[in-house]
Design brief:
Shape of chain A: globular
Strand order of the largest sheet of chain A: 1-2
CATH superfamily of the largest domain in chain B: Response regulator
CATH class of the largest domain in chain B: Alpha Beta
Number of domains of chain A: 1
Distance between the termini of chain A: 67 Å
CATH topology of chain A: ABC transporter involved in vitamin B12 uptake, BtuC
Largest sheet of chain A: 2 strands, antiparallel
Strand content of chain B: 15-25%
Number of strands of chain A: 4
CATH architecture of the largest domain in chain B: 3-Layer(aba) Sandwich
Oligomer: heterodimer
Number of domains of chain B: 2
Shape of chain B: globular
CATH topology of the largest domain in chain B: Rossmann fold
Distance between the termini of chain B: 87 Å
Order of helices and strands of chain B: HEHEHEHEEHEHEHEHEEHEEH
CATH class of chain A: Mainly Alpha
Number of helices of chain A: 12
Order of helices and strands of chain A: HHHHEHEHHHHHHEEH
Structural class of chain B: alpha/beta
Radius of gyration of chain A: 20 Å
CATH architecture of chain A: Orthogonal Bundle
Number of helices of chain B: 10
Radius of gyration of chain B: 25 Å
Strand content of chain A: under 5%
Largest sheet of chain B: 6 strands, parallel
Number of strands of chain B: 12
Structural class of chain A: mainly alpha
Helix content of chain A: 55-70%
Chain lengths: 318, 332
């Protein structure tokens, strides 16, 4: 026990924080695109589950044995297809977005379970992406182990943050997404194809949720299990609110939530006492969620960034 | 008349023969016993739900197949309200024995037990059969998880090189707490210097969090780990990747992770299920609280393919003997 210094603990917890934040960072960034365009996609959870199953089924030698990269691609394509379904239901058919999303989640949960039973006979394992030490940088004290000794999908999630910010702020398409999410009628009057832009944003959001799902078995757990996302998709949606629809703040939220979870594991491991008493495990396990609620309360100002047309179907002439 | 009556008589004769043959068939063939399971997780979860399903399938084979024992199941019933509807559906469909394989289903079972007096219900982990409240068609069951936990702990204590051993559970309750406390006692009885680090994931299905907990224990110096429930599959993979060892419970996980899982405490529900079926055939529908133990063959220790020393094997055998003969009593 004495050999574990506080610094060792913080480095180990921080390194795992990066890895465990990865799935909801991918899915939350995708949800930013979708929500900024005006479509509130609660189907992220189901899309992640389908992405997780399809990716490991393609990658694992117990499935199609097509390799990790093909697995990732399969997860992305699966997510994009489910995003297309969400776009069709909510944008073309003008269905209630919340209900549509829950429907997608239920379909994803049921379908991934059924396919797992039918195709995989209950066990799917894979040798996942291994950590890549970035030369020189990984030798940096403290930060080297935390930031530069991760696998490619963790690096990918972090790199997507500036890329998403750039796409949304600096490209015409990004401006169109924000325009159709704020005032679709005005954007339409300016010649922006609202339906096309919303479709593209929701499909991209779906693809990123599929990628998030793929990242779980292929870069974290090495294994698929029924309902393995366990609500991470809903946490990702909460992260978008938490981050006020900004990719950078979404990243901060994801890392904070993940850090809170990882630190409470260490509190359990080290049996940290409070006033001489062991802290009850149930209290510790609640901490990340309590933290999220507190931050959401204090971050209510973020609502000013909320896309004004979110959750409202667009009909020309309305 | 004769010409007209002869075909009529022949027809009557055929009808009579048909009726006799039909009744003979009805008397000769037994309807299969119909058993339904409602499980909280997948029946391929490599742990809790798989253990009961595998046992029932083994019993079906032993009894002569589908024509003797018909099995239906509903898995991944994490929603208690949905599970309650499903349990009621099985009862209304006339299933003979309904197994609610989760403590959380208890209220639903007792709510409907009176309505279906000719249906036999069983639930666990539990000890309450409701007999003190006049209910006579409910069985309860539990596993003495601490017994196999103790045996696994004895072996883990001999295997560790770092003297740091990790244990992972979903939540600190019921079967999980029993297993981990038994495991810890087994470790301490053999190697008092070994440290057992215990963590709880907070979920039965979040295997990513299970992975994170497993990696944290490895980072804390653990080289031998154990854990219970379906949430640990990611942790086992983390241990495999790190070249460590794992001790399992509930189902045999050695065939999935042959080089990593040293031994598994396997829940053998077959004797209990056989007894429930035989009692059902004799007209008894409930009133017994079963407990799987090493002594009654409800718990078994299955070894994987990991090379273990003769000393470890002897220590495990001695621990099993001591528990069975009462030399070692593991209070729960």
């Amino acid at each position: 026990m004495d050999e574990r210094t506080l610094l060792d603990v913080l480095v180990a917890a921080s390194a795992l924080t990066m890895a465990s934040a990865m799935p909801f960072l991918y899915s939350a960034l995708g949800e930013v695109f979708s929500q900024l365009s005006g479509v509130f996609n609660l189907g992220v959870e189901g899309i992640m589950l389908m992405g997780a199953f399809v990716s490991i089924y393609f990658a694992s030698d117990m499935g199609l044995d097509a390799g990790l990269l093909v697995g990732v691609l399969a997860g992305i394509v699966t997510g994009a297809l489910l995003g297309l379904v969400m776009a069709f239901v909510s944008v073309t058919m003008h269905a209630d977005q919340g209900i549509s999303g829950i429907g997608i989640t239920l379909v994803g949960r049921g379908l991934s379970t059924t396919l797992f039973i039918l195709l995989a006979d209950g066990v799917l394992l894979v040798e996942s992406f291994q950590p890549i030490r970035i030369p020189l940088l990984s030798d940096l004290p403290v930060l080297g182990e935390i930031l530069f000794n991760q696998n490619i999908m963790v690096y990918g999630a972090l790199l997507l943050v500036p890329l998403t910010a750039w796409l949304l702020r600096r490209t015409t398409w990004g401006l169109q997404i924000r325009a159709v999410g704020q005032n679709p009628a005005a954007a339409d009057a300016m010649g922006v194809d609202v339906v096309r832009v919303r479709y593209s944003a929701v499909i991209l959001g779906g693809a990123m949720a599929g990628l998030a799902g793929a990242s779980m078995p292929l870069a974290l757990t090495n294994v698929f299990q029924v309902n393995m996302t366990a609500g991470l998709g809903f946490i990702a949606v909460a992260m978008v609110y938490f981050g006020g629809w900004s990719p950078w703040r979404v990243m901060v939220g994801s890392l904070l939530f993940s850090a809170a979870y990882n630190l409470q594991i260490w509190v359990q491991v080290l049996d940290v006492k409070l006033f001489g008493e062991t802290i009850p495990v149930n209290i510790l396990l609640m901490m990340p969620y309590v933290l999220a609620i507190i931050v959401l309360v204090f971050a209510r100002d973020m609502q000013r960034f909320r896309p004004q047309a979110m959750n409202r179907p667009f009909r020309r002439g309305d | 008349m004769t010409n007209y009556s002869a075909p009529g008589l022949r027809a009557l004769g055929f009808l009579f023969m048909f009726a006799v043959l039909s009744s003979a068939v009805a008397v000769g063939a037994q309807d299969p016993i119909r058993v339904a399971i409602v499980a909280p997780s997948s029946i391929r979860d490599l742990s809790w739900s798989q253990s009961i399903h595998s046992s029932l399938k083994a019993l079906q084979e032993e009894m002569g197949g589908e024509s003797v024992l018909h099995i239906a199941y509903s898995e991944a019933m994490s929603s208690v309200s949905a599970a309650s509807e499903t349990l009621r559906g099985y009862a209304e469909d006339g299933f003979d024995i309904i197994i609610a394989h989760g403590t959380q289903y208890g209220t639903s079972i007792f709510d409907m037990a009176h309505e279906f007096p000719n249906t036999s219900f069983a639930w666990g982990t539990a000890t309450d059969t409701g007999s003190d409240r006049g209910i006579n068609n409910v069985y309860a069951y539990q596993a003495a998880a601490e017994e196999g936990g103790y045996v696994n702990g004895v072996m883990a204590a001999l295997l560790t090189e770092t003297n740091v051993i990790g244990a992972i559970g979903p939540i600190p309750a019921g079967d999980v707490r029993l297993y981990i406390s038994g495991f810890t006692r087994g470790v301490k009885s053999t190697n008092p210097d070994a440290e057992v680090l215990v963590v709880y994931v907070g979920s039965f299905s979040d295997i990513a969090a299970g992975t994170t907990n497993g990696r944290t224990l490895l980072a804390a110096g653990a080289d031998v780990l154990t854990g219970t429930s379906q949430v640990v599959v990611g942790a086992i993979e983390a241990v495999r990747s790190a070249g460590g060892y794992w001790f399992s419970t509930q189902s045999d996980q050695g065939n999935v992770w042959p080089g990593t899982v040293v031994s598994s405490q396997v829940y053998n529900w077959v004797p209990m299920l056989r007894d429930i079926i035989e009692r059902f055939q004799d007209g008894q529908y409930g009133g017994i609280a079963y407990k799987l133990t090493l002594a009654n063959d409800g718990l078994r220790i299955a070894f994987g393919t990991v090379d273990i020393s003769p000393q470890m094997l002897m220590a495990a055998g001695q621990a099993v003997e001591d528990i069975i003969d009462g030399t070692v009593v593991i209070s729960s």
